[in-house]
């Protein structure tokens, strides 16, 4: 019998089937909450053993459901104001069918929320108990969701059918008034905007994306969708209010000769007037309001425009401030460095070399390597250094046949160094305390008898580490060089834990006493 792979591995296809869609999947948030893949699998088993129908907040079904509801909600928030303001009951069978479908879906959503697992406030577990889910939902979003899911679509469909099937003029007029009231009442469905905001927050939580750029994209998308909805609603209101007043002679609709215009033309003019008022331009509102209703519409538009500006500027400022903090910190450090160099009146050539060093050392991003290494576990630290430096150590003869534990002990002692072109890394006959491994770059090793170029993967200075003596050659950087260094004290500290290796290296020192080491 075939078994499901991944977190649902404890459930066979014959016994689970579609229930696997209800189980938690591996994503950024689930791993953060539970800590490991094994813990996620245990969470799957916990849900299966409970034996109740509950949709886990990290399940595949929940992810698809959120995306579907986001699209339906956004279409509702666009279409409902358009229908009320411009379509005048002539929305057509397709739109009425969509209204009924949407109302049905939102009613189902209210019911499903009683079976939708939630994340605890401390973020340490998912609540799957039916009673706790029910109490939490009733205390928070139940009433707003019920109001937003009120089935206006059914009422409108029934009223439209009665209106078209009734030939009595008095009843027809009465039905028209009822239809107008119901259409105005359908504005309560705009409360679904709260669902859209919640869906956006949940998308970011359950997303498998781990890149800041993706999270930033969702924030920008949600911000511009809200701004678009604000402008869209305002434009619909611009036309809707004169329509309620049965288009008085001094209203803007009659002044612009839009009584018999198409819906697209009316909507365009409405949005144009709304934007003109929201961004405080005179276009579209040259004349002063002719009555107090228009005056209030203009004031509300201006206030909503100010709020839109405030939200847009605040969010843009926050996003810009959070983009690439390492680069901002680097620029701040460089600014302080430039002030220091100017204050100390350093020569321009030296200032340029210092700036070049920082660029070569940090690459435009400020970070403290020691702080990074201190925040990770010792095992991760070894793995990082193994990837970066293991190949360098293995090229050194005295390390080639050594035990893996000894290599790992040496790796954690390595330090990263950068040298600019022309730097004298070590000088001949000068006491030294470390050896160097070239990661990237070229150097020139000069002795009294020969010169030799070294490049990526080469090393020098091993004599100082083994004998604590003087350097036997001068080494200069021919290009910018990225190196790792091992100090004499750190190396001998490692040797204290490996006496056999220490004895072997003492023999190597005796065999190379002819000066081949540098």
How does this structure look, described?
α3 packs antiparallel against α9, α7 packs antiparallel against α8 and α17 (378-394) packs across α18 (404-411). Residues 1-10 and 514-518 have low confidence and may be disordered. This protein is of the alpha+beta class and 518 residues long. It is built from 21 helices and 10 strands. It has 4 domains: 17-206, no CATH class; 208-318, no CATH class; 325-362; 398-512, Jelly Rolls (Sandwich). It starts with 27 loop residues before the first helix and ends in a 7-residue tail after the last helix. Residues 398-503 form the Cyclic nucleotide-binding domain. Keywords: Cell membrane, Ion channel, Ion transport, Membrane, Potassium, Potassium channel, Potassium transport, Transmembrane, Transmembrane helix, Transport.
């Amino acid at each position: 019998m075939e078994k499901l792979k991944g977190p649902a591995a404890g459930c066979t296809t014959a016994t689970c089937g579609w229930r696997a869609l209800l189980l938690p999947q591996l994503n950024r948030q689930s791993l953060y909450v539970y800590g490991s893949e094994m813990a996620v699998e245990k969470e799957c088993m916990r849900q299966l053993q409970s034996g109740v129908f509950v949709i886990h907040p990290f399940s595949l079904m929940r992810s698809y459901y959120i995306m579907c509801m986001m699209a339906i909600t956004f279409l509702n928030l666009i279409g409902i104001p358009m229908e009320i303001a411009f379509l005048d009951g002539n929305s057509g069978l397709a739109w009425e069918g969509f209204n009924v479908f949407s109302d049905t879906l939102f009613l189902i959503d209210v019911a499903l929320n009683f079976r939708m697992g939630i994340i605890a406030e401390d973020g340490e577990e998912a609540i799957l108990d039916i009673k706790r889910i029910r109490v939490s939902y009733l205390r928070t979003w139940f009433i707003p969701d019920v109001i937003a899911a009120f089935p206006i679509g059914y009422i409108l469909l029934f009223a439209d059918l009665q209106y078209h099937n009734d030939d009595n003029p008095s009843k027809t007029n009465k039905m028209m008034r009822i239809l107008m009231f119901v259409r105005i009442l359908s504005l309560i469905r705009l409360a679904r905007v709260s669902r859209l905001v919640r869906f956006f927050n949940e998308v970011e939580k359950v997303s498998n994306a781990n890149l800041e750029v993706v999270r930033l994209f969702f924030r920008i998308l949600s911000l511009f969708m809200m701004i678009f909805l604000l402008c869209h609603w305002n434009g619909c209101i611009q036309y809707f209010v004169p329509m309620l007043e049965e288009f008085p002679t001094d209203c803007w609709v009659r002044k612009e000769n839009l009584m018999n215009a198409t819906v697209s033309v009316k909507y365009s003019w409405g949005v144009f007037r709304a934007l003109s008022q929201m961004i405080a331009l005179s276009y579209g509102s040259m004349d002063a309001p002719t009555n107090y209703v228009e005056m209030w519409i203009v004031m509300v538009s201006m206030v909503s425009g100010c709020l839109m500006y405030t939200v847009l500027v605040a969010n843009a400022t926050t996003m810009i401030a959070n983009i690439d903090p390492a680069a901002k910190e680097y620029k701040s450090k460089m600014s302080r460095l430039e002030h220091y160099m100017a204050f100390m009146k350093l020569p321009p050539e030296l200032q340029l070399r210092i700036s070049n060093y920082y660029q070569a050392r940090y690459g435009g991003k400020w970070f403290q390597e020691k702080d990074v290494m201190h925040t990770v576990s010792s095992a991760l630290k070894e793995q990082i250094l193994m990837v970066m430096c293991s190949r360098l150590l293995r090229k050194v003869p005295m390390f080639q046949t050594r035990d893996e534990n000894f290599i790992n002990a040496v790796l954690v002692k390595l330090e990263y160094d950068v040298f600019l072109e022309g730097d004298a890394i070590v000088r001949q006959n000068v006491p030294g305390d470390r050896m160097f491994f070239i990661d990237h770059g070229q150097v020139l090793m000069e002795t009294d008898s020969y010169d030799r170029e070294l490049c990526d993967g080469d090393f020098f200075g091993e004599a100082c580490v083994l004998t604590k003596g003087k350097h036997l050659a001068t080494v200069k950087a021919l290009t910018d060089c990225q190196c790792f260094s091992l100090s004499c004290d750190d190396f001998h500290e490692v040797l204290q834990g490996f006496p056999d290796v220490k004895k072997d290296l003492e023999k190597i020192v005796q065999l190379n006493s002819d000066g081949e080491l540098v």
